[in-house]
Amino acid sequence: MPGRAAHPFICTLVKFEQPLALLGLWYLTSRLLTLTLSVLGGLRCYWLSQLFPRCNLRDFGRWAIVVIEEGTLSVSYAEELARRGLDLQLIGTTSDLAILNDFCRYLQDTYRVTARVLICGSDQGDQTLVGCLERKIEELESVGFLVNQMQRRPAPGSHINASDCQISAEIRSLTWTATLSKLVLRKMAAQGHCGVIVNISDPSGDYPHCFQAVHSASCAFMDRFSRSLAWEVACGRIIVQSLVPDEVDEAAHAQCNLLTIKSSVLARHAVNTLPCGRSRGYWLFAVRGFFAGCVPVWLRRYWGCYRRASCQCKCKYKCLE
């Protein structure tokens, strides 16, 4: 009986053998074409950009406005722009003005550029502060760069236990990014020449992250906002890049291997990838992102649970010490 029942099914497969073969060939060809285009795009973004880097970034403008978030890529990115001859206007997300002033003096003494603190404070959502910032941007001679930095990725934790300050900081960072982009875009359009806007987040927005709900959604917003804005201003010769590198271990700054990348190396490679609308900053991060996209969603959920348990164990160990 089972053999008789299977016989009509086999006959049906034989009848549609040629259409099924064509369908399989079309699927295989499309996947191979997608993979080939991804490899070629990666070579153009991460290999050719290192062989033929842009020589003079001051062609975009004299000033670079950089949002500084402690412990993130923004610090090394600002230093790389200074190394390439751009004058800097720094925006601090904390109220510690002394740290920003020390960083400005370091940039001035090391790279012989002008570095100033544009504003510094945690009350960035205040409309009076936004108006003051708009006047200061209008007074600048020529703005070529704007670098926005997302909040640093927090330790995994339940959304129920998330503090109001943490949620407000994530939302304020997104509001600040949108407001700054609008002000600088208006200035760049009035200047009549090209410019660059770089929005730095992390791969948490590529897919939902359990125990990092707010940060994952914020990174997804930053990425989509950057890519949408890039299409909007494409005719205006303004480059908008979504930079989504993996988190750099600042404690391992003295080594650079397949597991850890120095923030200075990442910043140098990231600046060279400016023509790309979306970049991981470094070729190794791009390879990681490609293979991470092949991981099933259910396995990612268990990985998030594992990361949370690992962080809790580390915290308990530090408390015991």
In short, what is this structure?
The protein has helices spanning 2-15, 17-51, 73-83, 97-111, 127-139, 164-191, 213-232, 263-272, 283-292, 297-320; strands at residues 63-68, 87-92, 115-120, 143-149, 195-200, 238-243, 278-279. With 321 residues, it is an alpha/beta fold. The radius of gyration is 24 Å and the shape is globular.
Q: What report would you give on this structure?
A:
Belongs to the short-chain dehydrogenases/reductases (SDR) family. 17-beta-HSD 3 subfamily. With 321 residues, the protein is of the alpha/beta class. The protein has a single domain (55-314), classed as NAD(P)-binding Rossmann-like Domain (Rossmann fold, 3-Layer(aba) Sandwich), CATH 3.40.50. Helix content is 56%, strand content 12%. The chain has helices at 2-15, 17-51, 73-83, 97-111, 127-139, 164-191, 213-232, 263-272, 283-292, 297-320; strands spanning 63-68, 87-92, 115-120, 143-149, 195-200, 238-243, 278-279. Strands 3-2-1-4-5-6-7 form a 7-stranded parallel beta sheet, sandwiched between helices. Helix 7 (213-232) links the parallel strand 5 (195-200) and strand 6. Helix 5 (127-139) packs parallel to helix 6. The radius of gyration is 24 Å and the shape is globular. Residues 316-320 have low confidence and may be disordered.
Features:
321 residues; alpha/beta; Rossmann fold; 7-stranded parallel beta sheet; 10 helices; globular; disordered C terminus; NADP; NAD(P)-bd_dom_sf; SDR_fam
Radius of gyration: 24 Å
**Largest beta sheet, briefly?**
7 strands, parallel
Instruction: Please state the overall shape, judged from the principal axes of the Cα atoms.
Output: globular
Q: What is the number of independent domains?
A: 1
In the CATH scheme, the class would be Alpha Beta
The CATH superfamily label reads NAD(P)-binding Rossmann-like Domain
Alpha-beta content class = alpha/beta
